[in-house]
Design goal:
Elements: E1 5-8, E2 28-32, E3 45-48, E4 51-57, E5 62-65, E6 68-71, E7 76-80, E8 85-88, E9 99-105, H1 115-118, E10 133-134, H2 137-154, H3 162-187, H4 189-211, H5 220-226, H6 231-242, H7 246-264, H8 269-275, H9 281-292, H10 296-304
Parallel strand pairs: 1-3
Antiparallel strand pairs: 2-9, 3-8, 4-7, 4-9, 5-6, 5-8, 7-10
Length: 306
């Protein structure tokens, strides 16, 4: 079956998914899933032009992100940034109503507010659904409490204070989401340590490919794909476990390899740059100096002449 594409550009377009939903504000909505019947056909791909924060519990439905399936039966929360695509799983679509809620807000709501810049720091909006947040009963209650004043505000008439008040309420909820994700990283420590080890193995393999001319310098995205993770989730996981982001790890490994080659061979700096996977030697020299305070030539001279 060819997957249909359902484009949701405006908050009012939620009515395409939830018939009967009443749009009270043009830029933000809170949907009680237990009161709505979704209208998505099997295999429907959904792309929204706004942020989505969705919690579902005791739900037989599942959705896919890429090739990964996520079910919501254990009480999961996912956060999706504008432009990302999710797919209603063909084998799992059902007419049973789930429990839960959805918060949807358009980027235009944030214009001129502090949250317009700070929302970029919430990297969980770039996680895949397979990296969903599994909420405890207490965490579920906390997020519901954050939603209450927002729902009340949406029932009032829009005035000069509405935008700032709603943005601050959303910011509070997102801060609680960030705290919950931090807790989840801690509770999954043993599993994450295995992922860190797998990352280190993948990093070495990618650099081996680079030195053999198969691939260039490994990117965070390439490494994340090898581990079936999103780049932001991988970096956040590594930052939590090691204090360094994925890009930090790549640069550290690269500089250490460069030091070994500078002191262990007579190859020119340009030759070493190509051997490390750089397309242009000047990029290598610039990165090396930014990390060590010395150019590759100066580093070699300083250590070989001591």
């Amino acid at each position: 079956m060819t997957e249909a594409i359902l484009q949701l550009d405006a908050i009012s377009d939620l009515e395409k998914v939830f018939p009967g939903h009443i749009t009270r504000h043009p830029l933000v909505a809170v949907v009680d899933f237990s009161r709505m019947q979704d209208n998505c056909l099997p295999g429907t791909r959904i792309r929204a032009g706004f942020y989505s924060v969705m919690f579902k519990d005791h739900c037989p439905n599942s959705i896919r992100y890429g090739r990964t399936r996520l079910d919501f039966q254990q009480g999961s929360l996912i956060c999706i940034a504008p432009g990302q695509v999710i797919v209603m799983d063909e084998s799992q679509v059902t007419k049973e109503r789930p429990e839960g809620w959805g918060l949807f807000f358009h980027p235009d709501l944030l214009r001129g507010t502090r949250l317009a810049e700070e929302v970029r720091a919430y990297t969980f909006f770039s996680y895949s659904v397979s990296e969903a947040l599994h909420l405890s009963a207490r965490e579920q209650d906390v997020l519901k409490e954050c939603l209450r004043p927002l729902v009340t505000e949406l029932e009032d008439n829009i005035d000069a204070y509405t935008q700032r008040l709603i943005a601050s309420m959303i910011d509070q909820l997102l801060n609680h989401c960030a705290r919950c994700y931090d807790r989840q990283f801690i509770s999954r420590k043993a599993h994450n340590e295995i992922r860190v080890e797998a990352f280190e193995i993948a990093l070495k393999a990618c650099f081996q490919e680079a030195t053999e001319g198969i691939q260039g310098i490994p990117s965070v995205r390439r490494l994340a794909e090898k581990l079936f993770l999103t780049p932001d989730y991988l970096s956040d996981l590594l930052k939590r476990e090691t204090g360094l982001t994925a890009q930090d790890h790549i640069h550290h490994y690269l500089i250490e390899e460069a030091k070994n080659k500078l002191l262990g061979s007579n190859a020119t700096v340009g030759e070493l740059a190509y051997a490390l996977g750089f397309e242009y030697p000047q990029y290598f020299s610039r990165l090396f100096k930014s990390k060590t305070g010395m150019t590759p030539s100066a580093y070699r001279h300083a250590f070989l002449n001591n």
